[in-house]
Every structure is written in C-alpha cells, then in structure tokens.
Amino acid sequence: VMEICSLHLRAQLHADFGGNPRAGICPTKSGAVLIFSDPVSGSPFGYDSHDYVLDGVYHYTGGGRAGDQQLVRGNRALLERSPLLLFSRVDQKTWRYVGEVELGEPSYLVAEASDQNGNLRKVFVFRLTAVNADLGLL
Fold this sequence. Notes:
By secondary structure, this protein is mostly beta strands. The chain is built from three helices and eight strands, in the order E-H-E-E-H-E-E-H-E-E-E. It has helices at about 10-15, 40, 75-80, and strands at about 5-10, 25, 35, 50-55, 55-60, 85-90, 95-115, 120-135. Strands 1, 2, 3, 4, 5, 6, 7 and 8 form an eight-stranded mixed beta sheet that branches. The two termini are about 20 Å apart.
C-alpha cells in the first residue's frame, strides 16, 4: 500500500505494476490503472489545455497525441478498470503518489485542444475525484 505524498521512481512503478512506461495512462496486468499527471511536458500535445482542479474534481486530458482522441487503450481503461492510481511529476524520474481517484459524473467531457501538429482536435477530459487522494498535490 502506497502512502499519499510518497515518492516513487517511475521505472520501479512499472517493474512492480507493469504498464507502458511512456504513456500517461497505463493499464496494468493487475487491473489497476496508473495515471501520470505532467501538464508541462504534455503541452506540445495539448494535454495542458484542460488539466486543472476545480471544486474537488481533477480534469485530466486523455491519451492520443494527434487527431481526435478515441476511447481505446488507456482512455478506455479509465472507464473500465480500477483502482485508478494518480501520480504527479517531481522530476524526470520521480513521481509523487497523489492517491486513488475515481471517475466523477459525468466521467468525461469532450473539448478541443491542439495536437502535436498544431491542429485542433477533440480530446476527452476525464473528471477524477478523490477516493483516498490529496488533489492539492497536483
């Protein structure tokens, strides 16, 4: 069991849980989904446009760097799996455990953001609420 605010090496998280070490949304063999919040490095892909906390809900842009996002891979896993474990970036290798979150109601909104080519596209903005998390750590 991870402690909220504890620090973890991303490589070790993937060694322990599995999942794609390059993705922001990482479904794992155990069923858990690791969610990595890093709006600054995601800005070239429009991931920072809609990422914010408002009224206890973290709005988190889904995966897919070019063209309209689809409900596949990590985006689909957010809708179908649990637990959802949220991390925020500390530095290139280290991540802070924010805690366990779940989808709010509605689970996501559809918005527009630029893709990696600078073209406007549709993105999913997932609405995450704390189960046992400190959203102030984002």
